[in-house]
Every structure is written in structure tokens, then in C-alpha cells.
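Problem: given the chain below (107 residues), write out its structure.
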Amino acid sequence: MVIGINKIAVLSSSECQGSFESELFLSEEVQIFPNPTKDIANLYVGGSNTEIQLMLKDLNSKLIESRRFEIPSDGIIQLSVNHLKTGMYFIELESEEVRKELKLIKT
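Solution.
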């Protein structure tokens, strides 16, 4: 399997047994550190993507921020969280090679 969308199909030589097909997305590695954080969250994004879409949501899934980031050569994006209240948030990341949701704790 490769990073990104993979299609899986299970077929039988007998038509009466039917078939099964499914799509599976394999994502590159993503890490967040430090977590909890007070001011800056570092996001390590593996793979060869040069940009990624980030969506920051609160516990009620309300969108707080949505923006595109260019991924530097070291793969680390710095996200300022100074403007957030203390609590837990969700970060959704999406690109051709990444689909991840991370929990962020703001102290």
C-alpha cells in the first residue's frame, strides 16, 4: 500500500459469494509538541507535501481558524495559540498525503 487513497477489493471465483470493495486512506506521520502548550504548538508533518490545510476547532466542532501552511523542509509548522482560551481543541490537517485529527491542550 502507498500513502494516500488505497482501494481494496476481495473477489471470489464464485459469483454467488459476492465481492467486497473499500477505500482506505493511509496518512503520513503527524506529531504535535509540546502538548499541552501555552503559546506555540509545533506540528511535525512527514511526507513530501509542500503545503497543508489546517482547521482548528473547539470542543463543539466550531471552526476557529482555517488556513493553508507551507511545509518547511524540516516538516515543522509553528502554530501560535496565544489567542486561545485554556482548554482542549482539535486540529484537522489535510493534504494529498495527510488526513489527521489531533488534540491540542492549551494551558
